[in-house]
Structure formats: structure tokens, C-alpha cells
Specification:
Layout lengths: L2 E2 L6 E2 L2 H15 L5 H19 L8 E2 L7 H18 L7 H12 L4 H14 L11 H9 L9 E8 L2 E7 L2 H9 L16 E2 L2 E4 L24 H24 L6 H11 L16 H4 L4 H23 L4 H14 L21 H15 L16 H18 L4 E2 H22 L10 H17 L8 H16 L6 H20 L12 E10 L3 H8 L5 H19 L11 E9 L5 E8 L2 E4 L1 E5 L2 H4 L8 E12 L5 E11 L6 E2 L2 E2 L1 E11 L3 E5 L4
Antiparallel strand pairs: 1-2, 3-4, 4-5, 6-7, 7-8, 9-10, 10-11, 10-14, 11-12, 13-14, 13-19, 14-15, 15-18, 16-17
């Protein structure tokens, strides 16, 4: 027998240890338990247990808060609940400071120790006679766990028994989930309540929904951990899944609305045999491609693009004399790509390809064309079924064109025709390149579904963004995986549900909070590296030149001349007296992008490539990319004049070829020996320039 503390969820194997801990925990909560309330709760608990013991149905529906086999734990839980129910029934925190603390702790998943330090810090420096905060984070979590929100309650049902162990489904009512979605502010503006002949670019268009990941509206399903490595248990898992679906979808079956009849008929066929391996087999003349829609993340990111990477490596290994060296060269090129926010850098190459996530595959998509380009020579060794480098490069070019089109938020008919052409152009090159290395001779269901059915799916169901699973994959991560990771891994389900409830409360409360308007800042420096006087600049640079990177040395050498040139352009600007200069490692731009110019960021150099907006007069003097010119930041300087000057010392890029300025749709650039200071406010943003 084990004992669990209802406040901090710790598990104790001995009653004595639990009792000692419970006394301390209850003292921390500082609640007074009235005798009458305690007796009422005990009677309620006893009544509920009697009621459940008399249930004759195979399935028992009850709320998770009242179901536990440990008498001591339940009575403690009920006592604590009765003691704080007076406040929690109002669905309010005691005060705004209490609320903001618990929302902060929940949002950033701060553990009890860290949260308690925040409380101690606040109490020490607030100079208040009485603290508005909970005595500790455990007390705050207990308060949130007992807040009463009817639409956040989970139901629990016994689904199956296996090896003397009960497996339960925790779920929310499907209709209630829909009602929860309808409470999202302004959501009705996204509804199509009547048919509209919507036009996009003067053509009939197919659109997507606009529900993002910021709102909490998943349907939670948590199944027990049934071991699936045994072949006999696969049917058990399937059976458990179908039984779970039965309970989730039952509210729809009970609806009498004629609009739901088609769904009802299908559901009845599902329930006709809960042990069927695939209920679609019972449906006559079914077109599986109309019954399901392809999901881009699994079809492309984790599917076809993964095949493309694997087959590319196979091509390089098996069809070329120096195959292993070519793969090593791919790894070297990947590792040499400069870092950029939001992009995974594969410092170890493709060694861990089997464990890559969808996000990491998307990072590969952005750079693989440059890695493959000009990788190897022609077939001088007369290798059979040779795939030349140009074809392999075109394959990745066609992939990028197709993938970008797949992410459109809306499609006109001409867009669909363009998308269809891009799909078939890529597919033709895919088959040409890999038909001799695929173990299945490219008999890939995802390939067939994508090439021949995705356009029809878009016409029938809307843009792919509307039915991608990326939103729900993210919700699964944040509301199932992460809560499991921060649990103590014992008696997990109650901990998961309480964490989910607190997160839901946090989101609900945050939606109704009004954030004060922030004063916009044009830029914000951070990580100051050096400070010196302008009059002593040359002496300072000579002292520091051997301790900095070559790029920063170049910046030091050009500093004075470039600053003089910049100041000459400022009408009426004069420098009087001693001027101090600060050199920083990074600056946050107005668009929140971070630009860096530092010798060491996580032990590596980082000099950001940037785009600079040219004004209309200057743009006529330069070849630009739609009004943008590119450079690399060597120094970030704050000149403490009045007013201060926020400057970046830039080495400029130019187009490598005036005749062919673009390669694979990207500007084809080279660094040139031209340097200038530019105002940081004129920097359009940070860009990723791949060597």
C-alpha cells in the first residue's frame, strides 16, 4: 500500500512517513478544518464509494477527484478541499499578486523550489506588513487544483482490464469542448454562417481556418501505458482505442439534428463490432482518399522529405566511387552553415537522421539545396544508373517550390494548377533519381496520396493548413508530454490532470488580462564588450587586436575612417569634448530580431548577416534586392553623443553576377572590401546567408 500527499503529489510507502509529511504540508497550507465540514465530507466520500460499489455497468462514469482506493488520501484531500472551497468556488484568486504569481509559475513551469524563492524575494523587498502571496507554491498549486470550473472537469471511465490492472480513459465531453472553443474571444468572426462565393485574386478560392496554437481547445485522451511490445497486446491496444472512441463520440450519436445523421450512420457501423481491426472494411465502395486527408507534417516533413534525404545518402554511397567521402562532405557542409535563430545546425551531419523531428527536417529543407549544389563531378567512372549532380540539385529546388506552395493559406484555381504542376514536376524528378535505390521500387502510399489526391482534398476540404496536425502535435507536447516529464512518474494520471487544469486556468485568466501598453524602443543593446574614449580609440584597438576575431580586428581597423565618413553625412552634427564609445555583442532590433557581432556566443563566433533598407534616393545608385542591400555586422557601437548614435559597422555584400544575380530564387552574393557605419534603426532585419 502506498500513500500520496494531495498537495505536492509525493508518494510514501510507509504510513508513518506519510503522516509526518502530511502534518508539515497541511501546516504550510494554513487552513482550519471545521469538524462539521470534515464529517460532511467523510459522509459524502462514504456515500460515493457505496454508490460506485453497486454499479453493475461495465463502464462507470465519475469525476476524477473522487476516485481513489486510498482512504487516508481521500479523507485528507476532502478535508483540504473543504477548507479552501469557500474561496475556490468563486473561481477567483485571493488577489492580483497571488494570481500573477501562479500564472507565472504555471506558464514557465517553475518548480516548487524556484517558486518559493520568488515568494521569499518578494516578501523581503516589498515592505508589506502582510504578504498577498501564498506561503509557498505548494499552497498555490493546491488552491488552483480546487478551483471550480465546470468546463475543465474530466470524466473517467474504466476501459479495460489487463493482467489484474485497470486501464482508465480520462476525457472531456465532446460537446463541452466545442462550447469551450466558442468562448474564445472574437472566434465568431472566423465562422462561415452562410455560403459566400469568396474570391481571391478575382478567382473562387479555397481557404483555411484561423485557429492558432495559442488557444486551449484540444480534446484530451489519455490512455494507460499498455505494454505493446508483445504481439498479443496489439489487439488489446486497438480494442482500447475503439472503446475510447465510443465514449468520446457518444454525445454526437445522441444528437438528433439532421445535419449529423451521416456521422451517426458511420458511427453506428463503427460500434457494430468494437473488435474490428479496421471499421472501413465494413463500408461498401469506400474511397479511402476521400475519407481521409493528408497531413503535411507526416506526409512531407516526416515522410517524403525523409525518404528524399535517405535516398540521397544511398545515391552518394552506392553510385559513386567516393561515396563515403561524398557523405562526409555533405556532413562538413552542413556543419559549416552559420547559425541562425530558429534553424537547427547539424554540427554532426546526418548521423542522427533516424531521430530528427519535423522541425529539424524543415531546417534541412532550407539548406540542403546549397549543400547538394556542385557536390560532385560527372560520371567519369561510368557508374551504372548514375544520377548527375544537376538532377539531384533540381530535385531539391523543385521540392522547395512545391513545399512553399503547400503552405498557402488560400488557393485560387490558378494557384491549384500551379501547385499541381509543381507536385508532378518534383515527383517526376524524385522517381527519376531514386527508382534504383528504393527497396520498395518507390511503392510509397504517401507518394501516391500526395501526387494524385492532395489537390482534390484541397478542393473538398480547404487549404492544407486547415487540417494539419501540427497544432495538435504541439498541444500533445505541452499538455501531455511535458506534464508527464515534470511529474514524479508515480501514479501519473492525477498529476497530469491537475497540471493540465492549472495550465487551462492560466490560459483562461491570461485571455482576460489587460497588458499595459509598452513604450516602443527602436533598439536595445546587450552584452557590452568594450568601453573606451574616442580620443584614445587607436591605442585601445592596438591593445585588444590580438584577443579578438579577425572580423572584429577588421572592424577596429576601419572604425575611425568609417565613423568620420558617417559623421560627415550628418548636417550640423559636431563632436565637442571627450566622447565615450560602447561596443556591444548584440542588439535587439525594432522587429525583435537579435543582431550579433561577437567573438564568443556559446563558445563560437557569431557575426550576423543583415538586410538594410535603402531610401529611394540611394536605391538608384545600387543594385538592390527589391530595395534591400545586404551586409555583415562587424561591430555594434553606441556613440555617447547628445543624442546618442546607435551604429553598426558593416562589410557589404554585392551580387556575385550582375547578369545572373539569383541562384535557386535567392540572391547570389559575395563579400566585398567596402565598409560603412549605418544607423541600426535603418536595418530591416537579420538574414541567413549560406556559404
Amino acid at each position: 500500500m502506498s500513500f500520496k500527499c494531495p498537495l505536492c503529489m509525493r508518494i510514501f510507502s510507509q504510513r508513518f512517513a506519510y503522516t509526518q509529511h502530511a502534518q508539515k504540508c497541511l501546516k504550510n497550507v494554513e487552513v482550519e478544518v471545521e469538524e462539521d465540514d470534515d464529517n460532511n465530507n467523510s459522509e459524502k466520500y462514504s456515500s460515493e464509494m457505496d454508490t460506485r460499489s453497486n454499479l453493475s455497468s461495465e463502464y462507470e462514469n465519475d469525476k476524477v477527484e473522487v476516485d481513489d482506493d486510498n482512504d487516508v488520501q481521500n479523507m485528507s484531500f476532502d478535508s483540504i478541499g473543504s477548507a479552501i472551497s469557500e474561496m475556490s468556488l468563486e473561481d477567483k484568486f485571493p488577489n492580483d499578486a497571488y494570481k500573477d504569481l501562479m500564472l507565472l509559475v504555471t506558464k514557465y513551469k517553475i518548480n516548487n523550489k524556484g517558486g518559493n524563492e520568488i515568494i521569499r524575494f518578494f516578501n523581503k523587498h516589498s515592505n508589506l506588513t502582510e504578504s498577498p502571496l501564498p506561503k509557498n507554491i505548494e499552497q498555490g498549486r493546491a488552491f488552483m487544483n480546487n478551483m471550480k470550473f465546470s468546463n475543465l472537469e474530466f470524466s473517467k471511465v474504466l476501459i479495460t482490464k489487463h493482467e489484474d490492472k485497470d486501464y482508465f480513459l480520462y476525457y472531456q465531453n465532446l460537446i463541452q469542448c466545442i462550447k469551450n472553443i466558442l468562448t474564445v474571444p472574437d472566434i465568431t468572426q472566423n465562422f462561415a454562417l452562410s455560403y459566400e462565393n469568396y474570391e481571391y485574386n478575382r478567382e473562387n478560392a479555397t481557404t483555411t481556418d484561423t485557429l492558432g496554437k495559442s488557444q486551449l481547445h484540444p480534446i484530451y485522451i489519455t490512455l494507460g501505458n499498455i505494454p505493446i511490445w508483445q504481439a498479443a497486446n496489439k489487439d488489446l491496444v486497438r480494442d482500447t482505442f475503439h472503446k475510447s472512441l465510443r465514449h468520446l463520440l457518444e454525445p454526437i450519436i445522441l444528437l438528433k439534428d439532421e445535419l449529423m445523421m451521416k456521422c451517426v450512420n458511420i458511427l453506428k457501423m463503427i460500434h457494430k463490432d468494437l473488435f474490428a481491426h479496421n471499421f472501413f472494411w465494413d463500408l461498401p465502395n469506400i474511397n479511402i482518399y476521400l475519407a481521409t486527408v493528408p497531413d503535411r507534417m507526416h506526409h512531407l516533413d516526416l515522410g517524403l522529405f525523409r525518404y528524399q534525404i535517405i535516398f540521397t545518402c544511398d545515391i552518394l554511397k552506392s553510385q559513386h566511387v567516393n561515396g563515403n567521402k561524398l557523405v562526409e562532405e555533405v556532413d562538413r557542409r552542413l556543419a559549416a552553415i552559420p547559425r541562425f535563430p530558429g534553424i537547427k545546425i547539424f554540427s554532426n551531419g546526418l548521423q542522427s537522421i533516424a531521430r530528427l523531428t519535423a522541425s529539424e527536417y524543415r531546417s534541412l529543407m532550407k539548406v540542403m539545396i546549397f549543400v547538394i549544389d556542385n557536390l560532385y563531378d560527372e560520371n567519369n567512372n561510368e557508374v551504372d544508373n548514375f544520377v548527375n549532380n544537376d538532377d539531384l540539385t533540381k530535385l531539391y529546388e523543385y521540392w522547395n517550390e512545391m513545399y512553399i506552395l503547400s503552405r498557402y493559406e488560400e488557393f485560387s484555381e490558378s494557384d491549384l494548377e500551379k501547385f499541381n504542376d509543381a507536385i508532378h514536376r518534383w515527383a517526376w524528378m524524385f522517381v527519376k533519381a531514386f527508382k534504383f535505390v528504393s527497396p520498395s521500387n518507390l511503392k510509397l502510399p504517401k507518394l501516391h496520396s500526395w501526387v494524385y489526391h492532395i489537390i482534390d482534398s484541397i478542393r473538398s476540404y480547404g487549404a492544407i493548413n486547415g487540417y494539419t496536425t501540427e497544432t495538435y502535435e504541439s498541444l500533445h507536447k505541452y499538455f501531455v508530454k511535458i506534464p508527464y516529464q515534470i511529474s514524479n512518474k508515480k501514479d501519473v494520471e492525477p498529476q497530469l490532470l491537475q497540471t493540465i487544469k492549472r495550465q487551462a486556468i492560466s490560459i483562461r485568466m491570461s485571455q482576460h488580462s489587460v497588458n499595459p501598453a509598452k513604450t516602443p524602443r527602436t533598439c536595445k543593446f546587450s552584452a557590452r564588450l568594450f568601453e573606451f574614449s574616442l580620443q584614445d580609440a587607436n591605442t585601445f584597438f592596438n591593445e585588444k587586436k590580438d584577443s579578438v576575431d579577425n572580423k572584429m580586428q577588421t572592424g577596429f581597423a576601419r572604425f575611425i575612417s568609417c565613423l568620420d565618413s558617417y559623421l560627415d553625412l550628418l548636417d550640423g552634427f559636431t563632436i565637442i569634448g571627450e566622447i565615450r564609445i560602447n561596443i556591444y555583442g548584440s542588439v535587439t532590433l525594432e522587429n525583435v530580431a537579435i543582431m550579433r557581432a561577437t567573438n564568443r556566443y556559446h563558445n563560437k563566433v557569431w557575426f550576423s548577416d543583415i538586410a538594410i533598407s535603402m531610401d529611394s534616393e540611394e536605391s538608384n545608385d545600387y543594385i538592390s534586392d527589391k530595395g534591400l542591400c545586404y551586409g555583415q555586422a562587424l561591430l555594434l557601437a553606441e556613440v555617447l553623443t547628445d543624442p546618442p548614435l546607435n551604429l553598426a559597422l558593416i562589410q557589404w555584400y554585392d551580387f556575385k553576377s550582375k547578369r545572373n544575380p539569383y541562384l535557386y530564387g535567392c540572391p547570389h552574393l559575395k563579400l566585398i572590401e567596402l565598409y560603412n557605419f549605418v544607423a541600426i534603426e535603418s536595418i530591416h532585419g537579420v538574414v541567413h546567408i549560406v556559404p
